[in-house]
Amino acid sequence: MPAPSKLSHEKSHAEFHRARKVIPGGVNSPARAFGAVGGEPVVMDRGDGPYLFDIDGNRYIDFIGSWGPHILGHRHPRVVEAIEDALKHGTSFGAPTHLETVLAEIVVDAVPSVEMVRMVNSGTEAGMSAIRVARGATGRDKVVKFAGCYHGHVDALLVQAGSGALTHGVPTSPGIPAGATADTIVLPYNDPQRLAEAFTEFEGQIAGVFMEPVVGNMGLVPPKPEFLDAARQLCSEDGTLLGFDEVMTGFRLSFGGAQELFGVTPDMTMLGKVIGGGMPVGAYGGAAHVMENVSPLGPVYQAGTLSGNPIAMASGIATLSELKETNPYPRLEALGARFEQGLREAATAAGIPHSIGRVGSMMTLFFTSEDVTDLGTAQMSDTARFGKFFWGMLERGIYLPCSQFEALFISAAHTEEHIDEAITAAREVLGEISA
Ligand code: PLP
């Protein structure tokens, strides 16, 4: 099908203006607002496999997949059927169900670090709870996070870097009391030396080191292997819990997540996105001796009226079962490599400085020639050029993340033809914006 030339967004425009009157900024999560690229978001009507359709009837090849969950594409038949079946039994009981144990067993079997797991409703809840458990289990207060890593809107972790020095955290958002981040140490990603210095300075005081083992939230930034190894070793030596936030990477980079891919096993793991197959599910888990601290088994309180919701569990079980049986990961890697090479050639042909971060089906084209290894290098990108790239691609029916500092996601519903269509569009757009 030929790419659309000039799309009409008339209905989207009207709907967004209506939403803005009653919803802050017209969106229920800021990343959707197109703030980083200017203009207004497109209002979606439905998804099908690799496609999204907006309310004006435009079709897009979707490279966001609801920001990660839809690794099987939209409305995968097995997932839809599982949800419909679960619905016949009721939507929520506030009591134990068979389905939550089945999903927990799948997670425990798949994720190397996880011997016990607790279901929650979002990645944010997973992060918030994991920190509490790390603090409760160790009897320590301090936590380390890395600049540019996002762990949901958890007060203690909603902190960016200081100016490169080893700083105590300063809240990124108003409304977070300084006390909530006073025990947060923010360090640069991929810098084992700085992490070692923090352990020297705060020896015996750090409850947990939390990181995205592959960063998706400053654009895609892979870890240096020595960084993960150093984190593992330093944590073990000081009795600190290493927490991998695999909300994006879990069941995406491999069935066992980034920890399986890189062979580094943390003490705690946060999950979300793919684990719910498009329904609101998060989870946190880890070694049994850590998770035994969680209420009602242990003293660390954490709860949820809708946690382990049967519809969400059914969606997660169907998604993970399909992933396990079909093992799409080698194919996703091949599609990712094809996309990366196509973008690299297109940007080179256009004479545009670029750098591409990719691990498997997660990727970012940065508009900088710097090797992007941390927040500082990511921020060297030409975000104005990214904005033009984004809109050029959208006009051609390619739906990309609306920020330079987000990763795109390829799904098992994409084919080589979809990737090639995106590369063709990119070649045109990059040619237009090279000046
Ligand atoms: N952790 C990571 C790595 C994420 O990418 C996100 C969301 O994008 C979260 C946590 C928060 O998850 P949620 O939006 O489900 O609260």
Automatic annotation (TrEMBL):
The alphabetical list of record keywords is: Cytoplasm, Isomerase, Porphyrin biosynthesis, Pyridoxal phosphate
What is the enzyme's main class?
isomerase
Gene Ontology molecular functions: glutamate-1-semialdehyde 2,1-aminomutase activity; pyridoxal phosphate binding; transaminase activity
> Which EC numbers characterise this protein's activity in its record?
5.4.3.8
Quaternary organization: Homodimer.
Instruction: Identify one Gene Ontology CC term for this UniProt entry.
Output: cytoplasm
Record-listed N6-(pyridoxal phosphate)lysine modification sites: 273
What is the name listed in the Swiss-Prot or TrEMBL entry for this protein? Glutamate-1-semialdehyde 2,1-aminomutase
Q: Please name the InterPro entries in this protein's record.
A: 4pyrrol_synth_GluAld_NH2Trfase, Aminotrans_3, PyrdxlP-dep_Trfase, PyrdxlP-dep_Trfase_major, PyrdxlP-dep_Trfase_small
Which reactions is this enzyme annotated as catalysing? (S)-4-amino-5-oxopentanoate = 5-aminolevulinate
Q: Which family does it belong to?
A: Belongs to the class-III pyridoxal-phosphate-dependent aminotransferase family. HemL subfamily.
Q: Which GO terms describe its biological process?
A: protoporphyrinogen IX biosynthetic process
Q: In which pathway does it act?
A: Porphyrin-containing compound metabolism; protoporphyrin-IX biosynthesis; 5-aminolevulinate from L-glutamyl-tRNA(Glu): step 2/2
Q: Where in the cell is it found?
A: Cytoplasm
Cofactors? pyridoxal 5'-phosphate
Q: Mostly located where? A: cytoplasm
Which Pfam families does the record cross-reference, listed alphabetically?
A: Aminotran_3
Q: What superkingdom does the record give?
A: Bacteria
SUPFAM superfamilies documented for this protein: PLP-dependent transferases
